[in-house]
Amino acid sequence: MRKLAFLFATAILPLGAQATPPPSNGIKLPATYKHWQVLGVSHRDDNQSLRVIVGNTTAMTATRKGNTHPWPDGAILGKLVWKDSRHPLWQPAIVPGTLSHIEFMVKDSKKYADTGGWGFARWVGMELKPLDNDGGKPCFECHKAAAKTDFVFTRPAPLP
Amino acid sequence: MRKLAFLFATAILPLGAQATPPPSNGIKLPATYKHWQVLGVSHRDDNQSLRVIVGNTTAMTATRKGNTHPWPDGAILGKLVWKDSRHPLWQPAIVPGTLSHIEFMVKDSKKYADTGGWGFARWVGMELKPLDNDGGKPCFECHKAAAKTDFVFTRPAPLP
């Protein structure tokens, strides 16, 4: 029951001030990310984690207009990642457990020209410990696989 | 490649008019649901489907304030459900495939007193075929398992 109480007490979009952790790779945590709209969802069964992908207004407008080849400067994509847990009342449902990390891709084709035009940032755990990994170069190495979609893996989920 | 083209062409929050299907169980499709904020996420491994749970302003305000025991009248929760697929560039990632259905719980403690104070609605597939199932009584039968959380299974995902 302790865990359930914790989940309720630290709901997404909680009341109160936004946490302001130190920057990651020189990037500040976007202040309004909890209010962004959802772009996609994924579940990784290699590391047992659930993800929601959200976008800022620039990113969502670009998505609606199909203006993502390339994504425009100013677009920010956020990925909110939780470790798997099982819903206590519905066992076939894998639901968010503890927070793993939150991470962001920030498009600035000039500033981040060395990493595909994207800045990469990550904050780990509920304490939001910032990652500093050589300006996100290791992130970019994996994202090169998605070069044909401007280094973005996420494909907007289909809706009518 | 046809499938990928399809996914891009029917992005979440696409440009153009909102689809307006017939009502389900007498409930109209909420006009703005694609703009709602995210409350949670789940993956069901019994029926291989990925889900994003979103809420209208009343629901999200109630979540932030912890005012969900019970949820206030006017709160609407939406669940967007896709069949599983594998990301072609990142095989361990299960991502949205074709749309299964979208469904909503509408809180009106008087109007829906017979089903826990919630109206239940569902539209199936990209054609948004409305479900009519005896006013949502079969939905409510399963939701009785979550009576302690006002018949809502979703627990807001934790964030700092």
Give a brief outline of the structure.
The structure is a homodimer of 160-residue chains. Helices cover 15% and strands 34% of the residues of chain A.
List the helices and strands and how they pair.
The structure is a homodimer of 160-residue chains.
Chain A: H1 2-9, E1 37-44, E2 49-55, H2 57-65, E3 76-87, E4 90-107, E5 118-124, E6 129-130, H3 137-143
Antiparallel strand pairs in A: 1-2, 2-3, 3-4, 4-5, 5-6
Structurally, how many domains make up the residues of chain A? 1
- What characteristic shape of chain A results from the CA principal axes? globular
**How much strand of chain A?**
25-35%
Instruction: Please give the count of helices of chain A.
Output: 3
If interface size is counted as residues with C-beta under 8 Å from the partner's C-beta, which chains form the largest one?
A-B, 60 and 59 residues
Q: Return the structural class of chain A.
A: alpha+beta
InterPro entries (chains A, B): Cytochrome_P460 (IPR032033), Cytochrome_P460_sp (IPR038142)
Protein name (chains A, B): Cytochrome P460 domain-containing protein
Keywords (chains A, B): Signal
